[in-house]
Structures are given as structure tokens and as C-alpha cells.
Write a structure and sequence with these properties.
Elements (H helix, E strand, L loop, with lengths): L8 E5 L3 H13 L2 E5 L3 H10 L1 E4 L5 E4 L2 E3 L2 H5 L4 E5 L5 H9 L7 E5 L5 H10 L9
Parallel strand pairs: 1-2, 1-6, 2-5, 6-7
Antiparallel strand pairs: 3-4
Helix pairs in contact: 4-5
């Protein structure tokens, strides 16, 4: 990233320990953050607060501009998308991302396993499948 933190929007997919740690660290550095998790219960309190209170070596408030269980609004306009899930979820996340990614967005896989980036590249390269009307 060649732009200042305040001008960089980062979407974090996954509100487990890794995702929350990224929110804390990147938020205190001034990045514009969004958090997505499919599990509403995991993100409800963070949404209510508008971010995280950070305590430890670094202290402060890490604000989030959006916290949502919906992937499309979380990814729309993001410069960087960080997938912080177990590698067994990477293919599902990639299939979901395929329909909402735009040119110029970067994806970083964390907690990857063997073949995670290949699986993601393959899923994102496929054309998005439109839902059928019945």
C-alpha cells in the first residue's frame, strides 16, 4: 500500500481472535476499517460500540466504519480485503467474493493452509453465477 493509513480502507473478513486482533492493531494505526462475519452474534457488540476498546501494550479505541454480516457492503470500495478465517473456509469466502470484487482490490489470506491462495484464485477467476428465478 502506497497511501497513508487514513486513506486506506481495509475489510476484515472473520471476527474470531485473528480478525479482532487486526481490527485492534490497524484501527489504532488509523486505517479505515470494516468488519464482516457471517455470525451476527460475533459482531453485534462491536457494531453497538462502533469499534473496539484496546488494552495491552497499545491502548485506545479502534473505530470501525462498518460492521456487517453482509459481504457486499463490507467489500464495496475497500482497498484491501483480509480474510482471517480457517483455511477450510477460504473456498467459500472466495466464491462469495467473486461476485463483489472490483479491479484494484487486494486480498490477503491469513491463517492459510496448503492451497488456500490457489483455491481463492480459482474461485475468483470463475464467472459469478447469477441466482436462478423459479
Amino acid at each position: 500500500m502506497n497511501q497513508p493509513a487514513k486513506a486506506t480502507t481495509v475489510t476484515i473478513i472473520g471476527a474470531g481472535l485473528g480478525g479482532i486482533a487486526l481490527v485492534a492493531n490497524l484501527g489504532l494505526l488509523g486505517y479505515r476499517l470494516r468488519l464482516h462475519d457471517r455470525d451476527e452474534a460475533r459482531i453485534a457488540r462491536v457494531r453497538e460500540r462502533g469499534g473496539l476498546d484496546v488494552e495491552g501494550l497499545a491502548k485506545g479505541f479502534a473505530p470501525l466504519e462498518l460492521v456487517t454480516p453482509q459481504l457486499a457492503p463490507a467489500v464495496d470500495g475497500a482497498d484491501v480485503i483480509v480474510v482471517v478465517t480457517g483455511s477450510h473456509f477460504h473456498a467459500d469466502v472466495a466464491r462469495s467474493l467473486a461476485g463483489v470484487l472490483r479491479d484494484g482490490q487486494s486480498i490477503l489470506l491469513i491463517q492459510g493452509g496448503t492451497g488456500g491462495s490457489s483455491s481463492c484464485a480459482e474461485s475468483c477467476a470463475r464467472p459469478a453465477v447469477a441466482p436462478r428465478s423459479t
